[in-house]
Recover the amino acids of this structure.
């Protein structure tokens, strides 16, 4: 089973609204954009062949909650068919959260060592002799020549008196 990771790439979404047939100006407004200055800026919507108005918003981040509303001929409108939530100011808005896309890790990695003329790596033989875990076993210790005192004895201290 291939491992998966979420991607952080931005995505696009088409917002649609069925407005009255006599609507002339329909706009989408919301918390789109990377700065607060861009939030609630009107995005013009165009009327499709099916009579619904639509606008595509790019740069949406997966897993991010976006608040939005429509203005139809200057009047704020909530799409009754879409999910709603009340914001911090107590205003009911539509909400949308782009899905987080999970892709197999292999799809995100470059094609390395997969060409037809490259030889596969040899299998690892579990029965091969492995190096000893004690890497210091053959290294001489600088303290090897020092004798430890026996119980009840003081450690030998070299004479510090000058020789006559």
């Amino acid at each position: 089973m291939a491992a998966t990771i979420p991607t952080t790439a931005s995505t696009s979404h088409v917002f649609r609204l069925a407005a009255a047939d006599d609507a002339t100006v329909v706009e989408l407004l919301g918390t789109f954009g990377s700065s607060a200055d861009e939030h609630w800026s009107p995005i013009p919507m165009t009327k499709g062949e099916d009579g619904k108005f639509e606008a595509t918003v790019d740069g949406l981040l997966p897993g991010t909650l976006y608040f939005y509303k429509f203005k139809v001929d200057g009047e704020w409108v909530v799409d009754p068919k879409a999910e709603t939530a009340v914001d911090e100011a107590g205003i009911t808005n539509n909400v949308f959260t782009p899905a987080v896309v999970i892709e197999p890790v292999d799809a995100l990695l470059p094609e390395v060592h997969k060409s037809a003329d490259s030889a596969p790596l040899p299998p690892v033989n579990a029965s091969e002799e492995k190096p000893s875990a004690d890497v210091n076993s053959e290294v001489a210790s600088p303290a090897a020549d020092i004798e430890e005192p026996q119980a009840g004895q003081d450690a030998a201290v070299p004479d510090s008196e000058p020789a006559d």
About this structure: Helices lie at 105-108.
